[in-house]
């Protein structure tokens, strides 16, 4: 089921722009006292926060591509692409990088819309049991937005209510990351308490989404007991939440199949239509093979392309490899292997397999190059919850058969290719040391969640950069990577110029 989010820009003293760009001319002024009268008004305001998430500035292109390129599985395929993308790929990011500038404001717009819904709910005179399940969507959206920001930037401005004083907004200071995380947890706890067990679509957060994100937040903080408790809470409520692993891994990336799957927990839905860059899906274009005819997309741009070692080191008996990668393309009606992509295409691609997850079955693509797709981007899915539980339990109770069982559930599907079971993985992963089990689970996350914008966050939270960006890494040595700097992004230069209270910038920038 697809959900179209209605954009409502509730501009009260320019509150929608968060803490940035406060000279923008408002498109309208609407008093909350005049708007918020019914629970439907809260819903409309909350929808605005989710509407921003599919914009080109956020998951359409800028943030999503940034996360993908900073990992160790995807590199630039087209050397003529914009410098702002290449800078993330080679860890040479200035504080005026255009990717960061592009999405910083958009994320604060999400936050501003969520804050408006939360504040407006106070004006609606109905019982909490009626309005809180709706308001909880805004709490979830705010936590989701801040969780991305704090992992990327560390200390950031934290806004918990609409900004109505322009002068005051220009002197907002940074909030310590620990405090931001505490607020994220509080928001997710509220959402977990009040959201219903299920929703009409996975693009509307249910209790399972808040529950699962709490597990991931605690995992990110290294609070493994709480990470396990939250993940186990989701697993124990698998039936209540309507969750399960999709039997065929390919169906998760088929726009005609994924909407009815029980595996996605929270998704961003692209609906095959866009208003400019609102709701336009650029990943199909950015990761697709240039001039490829096989999907009728008009070909992609070969910007984000897996390194050759990703393909070479991925066991071919793993069904996820075939689903995740395209090793052939069609040029002038002729199917060609990846070894001649550059010669067969327009000459700006590379002779490497390309990502197939966002090109193979994307539904409607009326805007060309796949930008009008109907893809459901899974921000959280059940397989990840199982792996969170396994990773966290290994840290508190190494050698646990329970943790092994969670990994085996994920691996069982990876062995199953259209009903044909391979002998790739041992069904018994017992006997591993704590360190070996940890490495195994992180590797399992790398393959299970390949190209799903998770890998950079795993590298950063486990401080793996010096290892994975060394000469033995999948992309070879990245000499610019500095572990003292590059786990955090620079705060945008124009934000610092606008508000000196945000100084100093993160170390090294």
Automatic annotation (TrEMBL):
What does the UniProt keyword field contain?
Cell outer membrane, Membrane, Signal
Superkingdom is Bacteria
Domain SusD-like N-terminal: start-end pairs: 96-219
User: Carries keyword Signal?
Assistant: yes
- What positions does the domain RagB/SusD occupy? 352-509
Membrane found in the keyword field: yes
Q: State the Pfam families in the record.
A: SusD-like_3 (PF14322), SusD_RagB (PF07980)
Chief subcellular location equals membrane
Record's subcellular location:
Cell outer membrane
The similarity comment for this entry is: Belongs to the SusD family.
Name assigned to this protein: RagB/SusD family nutrient uptake outer membrane protein
Q: Which organism is it from?
A: Algibacter aquimarinus
């Amino acid at each position: 089921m697809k959900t179209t989010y209605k954009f409502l820009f509730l501009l009260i003293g320019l509150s929608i722009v968060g803490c940035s760009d406060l000279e923008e001319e408002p498109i309208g002024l609407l008093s909350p006292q005049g708007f918020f009268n019914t629970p439907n008004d809260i819903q409309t305001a909350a929808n605005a926060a989710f509407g921003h998430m599919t914009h080109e500035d956020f998951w359409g292109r800028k943030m999503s591509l940034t996360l993908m390129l900073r990992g160790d599985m995807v590199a630039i395929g087209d050397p003529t692409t914009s410098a702002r993308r290449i800078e993330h790929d080679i860890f040479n990011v200035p504080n005026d990088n255009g990717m960061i500038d592009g999405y910083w404001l958009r994320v604060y717009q999400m936050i501003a819309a969520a804050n408006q819904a939360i504040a407006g709910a106070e004006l609606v005179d109905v019982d909490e049991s009626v309005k809180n399940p709706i308001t909880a969507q805004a709490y979830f959206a705010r936590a989701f937005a801040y969780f991305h920001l704090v992992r990327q930037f560390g200390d950031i401005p934290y806004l918990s209510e609409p900004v109505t004083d322009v002068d005051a907004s220009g002197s907002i200071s940074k909030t310590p990351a620990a405090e931001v995380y505490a607020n994220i947890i509080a928001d997710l706890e509220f959402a977990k308490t009040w959201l219903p067990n299920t929703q009409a679509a996975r693009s509307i957060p249910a209790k399972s989404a808040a529950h699962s994100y709490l597990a991931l937040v605690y995992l990110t903080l290294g609070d493994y007991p709480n990470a396990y408790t939250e993940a186990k809470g989701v697993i124990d409520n698998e039936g209540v939440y309507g969750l399960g692993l999709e039997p065929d891994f390919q169906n998760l990336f088929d726009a005609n199949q994924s909407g009815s799957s029980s595996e996605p927990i929270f998704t961003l839905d692209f609906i095959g239509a866009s208003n400019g860059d609102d709701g336009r899906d650029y990943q199909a274009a950015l990761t697709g093979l240039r001039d490829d005819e096989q999907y009728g997309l008009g070909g992609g741009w070969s910007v984000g392309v897996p390194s050759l070692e990703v393909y070479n080191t991925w066991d071919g008996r793993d069904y996820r490899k075939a689903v995740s990668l395209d090793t052939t393309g069609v040029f002038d009606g002729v199917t060609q292997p990846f070894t001649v992509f550059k010669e067969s295409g327009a000459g700006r691609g590379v002779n490497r397999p390309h990502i197939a997850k966002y090109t193979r079955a994307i539904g409607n693509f009326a805007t060309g190059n796949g930008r009008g797709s109907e893809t459901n981007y899974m921000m959280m899915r059940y397989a990840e919850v199982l792996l969170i539980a396994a990773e966290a339990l290994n840290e508190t109770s190494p050698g646990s058969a329970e943790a092994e069982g969670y990994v085996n559930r994920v691996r069982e599907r990876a062995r199953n290719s259209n009903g044909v079971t391979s002998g790739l993985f041992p069904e018994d992963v017992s006997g591993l040391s704590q360190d070996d089990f940890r490495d195994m689970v992180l590797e399992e996350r790398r393959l299970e969640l390949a190209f799903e914008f998770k890998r950079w966050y795993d590298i950063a939270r486990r401080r793996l950069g010096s290892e994975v960006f060394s000469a033995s890494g999948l992309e070879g040595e990245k000499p610019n990577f500095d572990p003292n700097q590059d786990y955090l992004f620079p705060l945008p230069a124009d934000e610092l110029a606008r508000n000196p209270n945000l100084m100093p910038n993160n170390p090294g920038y």
